[in-house]
Amino acid sequence: MAFIGLVRVSTDKHKTQRQHDALSPICLKVIEEKTSGKLATADRPDLLTALSYIREGDLLTVQEVDRLGRNLLEGLIVLNDLFQQGVGVKVLEGIAVGEHTERSFILDLALALAEDRRRDIVRKTKNGLETARKQGKVGGRRPVVDDDRRAAILDRRRRGESIRTIAAGVKVSVGGVHKTLAEAKASSDPAADED
Asked: What single-letter DSSP state applies at residue 60?
């Protein structure tokens, strides 16, 4: 019997190292999947790749059961597809720890709890952002063009430097220079004229 690992995240921004750390020591092969919003196994090429390595008696191995699907419905569809193909699943963490060859209440419960946890995180994030907005705080990254860079951009433009020269000198993208000049022009700053 061999374990074939599946690491799944929804986007490129999410980290996979924790899943690799859990799966790599015990799995013959680990396949990484970055997919979101797919339901059936047939719509997930990386999952199909992982399944192509599985032989009779092998188990598809995941760190937690929610790696098979983002929500209860998606997870159940994938589990049902796997079990119909005779593929068993090994779960390393969470309430569904163990080896599974058929659907069970504990797998359903683990997927339902994962969906509920995800929904709770989304709700709390939205509430936090809304509270911050009401307090006048704006989320997101800090602007690349701070006050010093803005002043340098406007000063260099007054001296007749090109947009590209300014961008290279101030270490800001060409788009950042254009945006700064446009904002200054909108606020009637004569240095912002791009002619």
From this structure: E
d(CA 62, CA 4): 9
Catalytic residue, candidates 10, 24, 104, 173: 10
On the question of pLDDT at 14 being above 90, the answer is: no
In angstroms, rounded to a whole number, what is the distance separating the alpha carbons of residues 15 and 6?
14
Does the annotation count 10 as an active-site position?
yes
Q: Are 28 and 54 in contact (CB under 8 A)?
A: no
Least confident of 64-78, 98-112, 126-140, 152-166: 126-140
Query: CA of 18: how far to CAs of 2, 38, 93, 189, 193, in Å?
Result: 21, 23, 12, 51, 51
**pLDDT at position 134, please?**
87
For the segment 60-87, what is each residue's pLDDT rounded down to a tens digit? 999 999 898 878 888 888 898 889 888 9
Residue with the two structure tokens 């860079």: 149
Give percent of the chain above pLDDT 90: 44
- Express the helix, strand and coil content of the chain in percent, nearest 5 each: 50, 10, 35
Phi-psi region at 160: left, alpha or beta (left = phi > 0; alpha = psi -120 to 50)? left
